[in-house]
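Methods — Computational structure assignment.
A single polypeptide chain was analysed. Its primary sequence is given first, followed by the predicted tertiary structure written as structure tokens.
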Amino acid sequence: MTEGRARTVFIGSGGFGRETLWRLGEHPDVDLVGVITAPPRPAGRGGRTTVTPIHEAARHLDVRPILTPSRLRAAETIDEVLALAPDVVVLADYGQLVPSALLGVRHGALNLHPSLLPRYRGATPIPAAILAGDRETGVTLMRMDEGLDTGPIVAQTRVPLAGDETTPLLEEMLEVEAAELLTRYLGPWLRGKIAATPQSDDGATLTRPLRREDGRLDVSRPAVELERQVRAYQPWPGSFVETDGGRLVVWRCEVEAAGPSPGLFDERGLGAGDGSRLRLLEVQPAGRDRMSWDAYLRGRSSIVGSSIVR
């Protein structure tokens, strides 16, 4: 350990925390003594065993140990982490509750959460902001307690939204903002120069993990809401309708004020609620690659005038 540096354990799995881990590896106040991430899992059509983005980044940083427990709250996992004698724990995009034993280390456990808490606590804050049509979002640095994203707030940064963001692109933006936020405030936090502010429950919304069925487009809703869903639910669970030719996934679309009856296809797209149209730009038929709507129509013009299968 370098004299005067805080022994730091990073916990994370998804890409949102990757830039933060890189910054921790070069932070002047940090001695990065371990990384905890999800176990390797099969991925892709071939089922190849794949490590998390955090695992891969930790390898490049030559951080050891890299722990991959199935359950962070297992007694043996807690003992293994505490054996590293951390002064502070930093978490981003992990997906499991942190045991109280790790919350109580010298400088606490700090969580980087991609929303302006208390808005959008829980598992899916980025899609939630897009779905709601919010004009801004951000990142919150908070000291964790035993609740779900309920701990006191150390700092926040705000990010304006243009209204055309997809979840992957917004996550990339917030990944950088999160790393900047931690870089700016971690040193003062470790030196006791700033304090956390208790979080209000006013305006709090709890988001849940997404399920495949959430991706089904409800054509009784206005096209403006469906277009937000298409952007929000990338890459999982996607947004789709069922046709007599199989499932059709929608990747890109626009809103038009007037269209056919809800659920009816025409040459420009799909009728939606309130008389609007979801103008289809890029789709993916079952078992095929993504393609433009025009290319799809050239191969299946019979869909015009038909309705979705409910």
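Note: The CA atoms of residues 9 and 34 lie 5 Å apart.
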